């Protein structure tokens, strides 16, 4: 088997592959023997069909199939061994292959067009100065997180006077003869839909009696009314008048004071020992989460900076268009010019980023991908105020994420980006600036 590569300028080449009979004959013979063992031909027992008949019926098709498989394997081996920077896949030159007689010929030459990656040099060093934004959490964000941790350690307490959000317990009595009586009825007026009815409960105390209309208060919601009145949904409409509610108990959920119990619940035993340390630790959490966004912004800025520095990359657009069209789903429309140009832009950045990764010797393994998956899981828990999640739980969640093919692919790309960003930060000169969340988001949207 012989290969010949002829460059057609800087962006394409013609790959010729010459195949001799000796290259494929043994493969064809083996496959025909398999056919003979399985062939079901009238008049012959299984495995006893004459080889001549098998060759006559299947010989050309088997020969074509084996040559095609051999071509695919050997071409990509050749490209890899010779380090040819190919884009997409080889495209067969159909005019040349139209003259091939698969049944009669023994020696074959196949020609393919290849799109070559452009030559360029993406360079970053200390002379390259780039902005890096350190996002600062607002005081309100820190306070909100403090309140969330305090809420988690809160408790229910009995109080004397009602405030919005409290839970009332009492006796609910329908204001008609032989009406419904519900003892130890439980109700939260803050859930009422009607503001006038809700206002009737403002400031009520234990042992007070309030007259109201549940049907109006809850806007005729059958499910809520059936639950409150302890009747079937079908019976709700028959009880649309006034009721009295004799308050026997008022319960309020009270957030915990900021104490060591709250600190330990958030960050582990004795990790912080004062409110000042507690708030500082929460600020650190936010800054660590924000660093991911700052790093991503840096990578996008590097993209813009380097693409301008490298300049427009040259591609063989004709070959790339045909590759994209050949890969589209059956029946789908041809790739539009707009989408094609967008693809070239993304391809250019992909090649630049790939070159950077090679220069910085960025390599990842399964542990790197798992680490990124754990970080993603940790962020998800943090959004629900769960900061001190055990490592084994994080790892179990992360491993479940990695079982999903699309998620795993995204996390692999993320792992590459993490190491690449780290290398970039160590290489270029960073002009650091502390910035609010609002101002950072403005900068991101301006550059989108």
How does this structure look, described?
This protein has 448 residues and is an alpha+beta fold. The chain folds into three domains: 2-116, Trigger factor ribosome-binding domain (Alpha-Beta Plaits), CATH 3.30.70; 129-137 and 275-446, Orthogonal Bundle (Trigger factor, domain 2); 155-254, Chitinase A, domain 3 (Roll), CATH 3.10.50. Helix content is 50%, strand content 18%. The chain contains 15 helices and eleven strands. Strands 6, 7, 8, 9 and 10 form a five-stranded antiparallel sheet that branches. The protein has a four-stranded antiparallel sheet with strand order 1-2-4-3, with helices on both faces. A two-stranded parallel ribbon has the order 5-11. Helix 1 (21-38) packs across helix 2, helix 4 (139-152) packs across helix 9 (275-310) and helix 12 (366-382) packs across helix 14 (405-427). It is elongated. The model has no long low-confidence stretch (mean pLDDT 92).
Largest sheet features? 5 strands, antiparallel
Give the total of domains.
3
Strand segment tally: 11
Q: Indicate the percent of residues in helices.
A: 40-55%
Tell me the span between the first and last alpha carbons: 51 Å
In the CATH hierarchy, what is the architecture of the largest domain at level 2? Orthogonal Bundle
Overall mean pLDDT stands at: 92
Q: Return the CATH class of the largest domain.
A: Mainly Alpha
CATH topology of the largest domain: Trigger factor, domain 2
Please tally the helical runs, counting DSSP H or I stretches of 4 or more residues. 15
Structural class: alpha+beta
SSE topology string: EEHHEHEEHEEEHEHHEHHHHHHHEH
Name the poorly predicted regions. none
Shape descriptor: elongated
Percent strand equals 15-25%
Rg, rounded, reads 36 Å
